[in-house]
TrEMBL record:
One GO MF term attached to the UniProt entry: 2-dehydropantoate 2-reductase activity
A GO CC term assigned to this protein in UniProt: cytoplasm
GO BP annotations listed: pantothenate biosynthetic process
Organism of this sequence: Candidatus Pantoea soli
Ketopantoate reductase C-terminal domain location: 168-289
Stated name of the protein: 2-dehydropantoate 2-reductase
């Protein structure tokens, strides 16, 4: 297949590397106008690969069989909208990111749209992307046009296993959202690794109650005990991780809060429910973002996110 990967950071580079190894023709799409994209990946076994791929070629994009979007949530819809007129009408667009809400922002996209979440872990270390832990990528359709594209999961699975197809991807996204709503802002509040959150069981219980309430109203019933167990499983299996939100705050970058807790609060508001503890954490993260947006490192000038 011919595949364009939009966003060549940690997750984008492990996909570019894996897809190229599998014999797919790939290009990267970057924020900066540059005709090549350097990919340096250390795989989970410690093997290093360095490639240089074509980047930002509109002809390649127009002929692509898939646009794989590996951006952070706030970057997704502006970047996809920017490319939609070049993409062929039938080219599937797969959004692979944490959080929810981008599908609503892209509801007018004519191309078949798919959503995905992943438990692979990758991080930048200088100029190298370290694929820290293998995981599972769950994908599925979010438009009528993409419902018949389950064969895509098989092709992606050959390149970077495991990939699982879900006819109802919203359920998997809600479960991942629930985990992120608890772990991400709490690790910022307590400035700690994921595993240390076991010291705040009451806060975790309150957040889970609020989240389960919204999920039930969304038709995503989950027993409170199951939700709490799921959160503690991730806390334990990622105990040594610094959550992506805490990494963003430490680096004074925009976080994904508007697509994580922000999305939960938007759904709660639509249902007439108030969520005091999630609201408090959301406001805390937004205060931090606005503080460092006004006082960026190494500059006296305000910084725009775009
Ligand atoms: P990342 O390393 O920050 O990669 C995002 C890339 O997109 C960056 O290279 C960024 O370039 C680029 N970019 C920003 N705006 C762009 C634009 N308009 N056009 C093209 N490229 C643009 O993030 P990531 O860790 O790969 O995460 C991607 C998504 O996967 C997030 O939602 C994250 O939460 C999720 N996720 C990540 C992991 C993980 O282990 N990393 C695991 C599970 C889920 P600049 O830096 O130059 O702006
Ligand atoms: O955003 C993150 O950091 C991850 O999704 C998770 C699962 C919370 C582990 O750190």
């Amino acid at each position: 297949m011919k595949i364009t990967v939009l966003g060549c950071g940690a997750i984008g580079q492990i996909w570019l590397d894996a897809l190229a190894r599998q014999g797919h023709e790939v290009q990267g799409w970057l924020r900066v106008p540059q005709p090549y994209c350097a990919v340096n990946v250390t795989d989970t076994q410690g093997n290093i690969t360095n490639h240089t791929f074509v980047a930002n070629d509109p002809l390649f994009l127009a002929r692509s069989d898939l646009l794989l979007v590996t951006l952070k949530a706030p970057q997704v819809s502006p970047a996809v909208k920017n490319l939609q007129s070049v993409l062929a009408a039938g080219t599937p667009v797969l959004l692979l990111h944490n959080g929810m809400g981008t599908v609503d922002e892209l509801r007018d996209l004519q191309q078949p749209l798919l959503r995905g979440i992943t438990t692979h872990a990758a991080m930048r270390d200088g100029t190298v992307i370290k694929h820290v832990a293998a995981g599972v990528t769950h994908i599925g359709p979010v438009s009528r046009e993409s419902a018949a594209l389950s064969a895509l999961a098989d092709s992606l699975h050959q390149a970077l296993p495991d990939v699982a197809w879900h006819d109802n991807i919203a359920s998997a996204c809600w479960r991942k959202l629930a985990v992120n709503c608890v772990i991400n802002p709490l690790t910022v509040e307590h400035d700690c690794q994921n595993g240390a959150l076991r010291a705040w069981p009451q806060q975790i219980a309150t957040l889970c109650e609020e989240i389960a309430w919204v999920m039930a109203r969304e038709g995503e019933h989950i027993a409170l005990d199951n939700l709490r167990d799921m959160v503690y499983d991730v806390i334990d299996s990622t105990a040594a991780n610094v959550s992506s939100m805490l990494q963003d705050v430490r680096a004074r970058r925009q976080t994904e809060i508007d697509y994580i807790t922000g999305y939960l609060l938007r759904r709660a508001r639509a249902q007439g429910i108030s969520l005091p503890e999630n609201t408090r954490l959301y406001d805390m993260i937004k205060r931090k973002e606005s503080h460092y947006a006004r006082q960026p490192i190494g500059s006296g000038l305000p910084r725009s996110w775009q």
